[in-house]
Amino acid sequence: MNLDHSILTLITFVPLAGALLLALLPDKGKTMQWGALAITLVTFVLTLHLPAHFNYGALPGTFQFTADYAWIPPIVRYHLGVDGLAMWLVVLTGLLAPLGVLISWRAIDSRKKLFYILFLLQQVAMMGIFVSLDLFLYYAFWELSLVPMTLLIATFGRTKDRRRAAIKYFLYAFIPSALLLVAMIWLYIQTGTFELPRLAELAAAHSISANSAALWLASLAFLFAFAVKVPIFPLHGWLSDAIFETPTAAVMVLAGKTGLYSILRFSFTIFPAESHRIAPIMIALGAIGIVYGALIALVQNDLKRLAAYSTLGHLSFIVLGIFTFTISGLDGGIYQILNHGISGGALFMLMGLLYERYQTYDMRQYGGLAAKYPWLVTMFVITTLSVIGLPMLNSFVGEFLILTGSMQSAIPHHVLWTALGTTGVIFGAAYMLVMIQRLFYGNLGRIPQSTTGWDLDAREHLALWPMVALFLAMGVASPFWLRAIDNTGTEIAMHVFEATPAPSAITPEATLLQNQNQGGQR
């Protein structure tokens, strides 16, 4: 049976059907855990259809596995499709979901039905964001993503400040989203369509609007909404509190992916000239965010807050890469989105397991655990090496491509911002290795002395080893992922430079030549 025209619908809505099923089942024993695990595994298996049947030789800018039907005629269409960018994000989201269920098996011991229903609804929203090619449909999933995450933080946060963190997260995300809706409606009035492919054609022909000031404001509304969700420095005020309170399974998908994807998919596609115009500011903010996040992480005593500022630094690295508008920078930025989802997800999983054993994230209470729990420290060390970009592991490839692309960029002062961003690599290694030293070496801490813990069990091994395998596979076999990603990077670079009136040091012809050279090297 040919699933190509229905696979994206199945991937998106199987978790919704699963959530409805869980709502009807009794919350007894491990029913919710097993039910959620089965649903997320089915969804993940469905996502594997995409890379298995993807046409890697398709022209850049081609969407595959499309479904296109009238939904609210004649205004809104149910239009789905993926390219090299969206495909791997769908697969990543499908992978993280069952691992999140496994890691929450014991951590969520009350109101389990509510937790797993909200978790599945969050998966529906994220899948919908990645596959929607109609702006109105996309916005419906974008708004849906706010609700389950806000409720997860407010209901399952670990301190009395959880509701405050949930409200902060909701307001930070919702207010810019209102501006995004206004900009979308303005676009429809100007063009008569919400269809992304049609909007891309109009943008390339400079035919969206003759009012350059209005077009600039609309582009800022889009970028502002997406930048808050990344978050990009200095719009990160919600991040630390949200990560501090959010359960491990939810925090694995909280930051980065949807915001960065939306910038790449919508800001760069609909507003290419405006995106190029604001690129110097975004590159500067990316470089500053790298250093700021690393320096704040260095002085943290709480593991969750260290991870929050580490997240800010790594996401800022991606911002630096994608706004260079070089193929290397775009490829590296997209690849690093995947790497952050895997390495950052593994780090949050391990921190959650440590909290499950000792009920604290305070590093001052730990020490000397390496002798007692060899598997736990092994996984922590491997994940740390992945996060800091050790050669042969996944993050090294993304960071190398980002820095290469940044040095090739035609954006003003790119050498300065690249040099500043590079220092974040050193600072990142510093705070991650200090974390390992404080947790696992030295004298045995007070909490481990008074509380009996345990090394990794079979369920925890099952959740962590797929991540470790991906660390190595994505480090030594990156062309498997980059052959699809490169098509998207090429398309974005060409689209932006063709739509930018001002002459650029990197022409489309030079960009294509660079792409051919990279293909030969790979």
Automatic annotation (TrEMBL):
Keywords: Membrane, Transmembrane, Transmembrane helix. Its main location: membrane. It is a multi-pass membrane protein. It is found in: Endomembrane system; Membrane. GO terms for cellular component: endomembrane system; membrane. GO terms for molecular function: NADH dehydrogenase (ubiquinone) activity; NADH dehydrogenase activity; ubiquinone binding. Signal peptide: none annotated. Residues 132-416 form the NADH:quinone oxidoreductase/Mrp antiporter transmembrane domain. It comes from the Bacteria. InterPro entries: NADH_Q_OxRdtase_chainM/4, NADH_UbQ_OxRdtase, ND/Mrp_TM. GO terms for biological process: ATP synthesis coupled electron transport; electron transport coupled proton transport. The chain crosses the membrane at residues 6-25, 34-54, 85-105, 114-133, 139-157, 169-189, 209-228, 249-271, 277-299, 306-327, 333-355, 375-397, 417-441, 462-482. Pfam families: Proton_antipo_M (PF00361). Belongs to the complex I subunit 4 family. This is NADH-quinone oxidoreductase subunit M. It comes from Granulicella arctica.
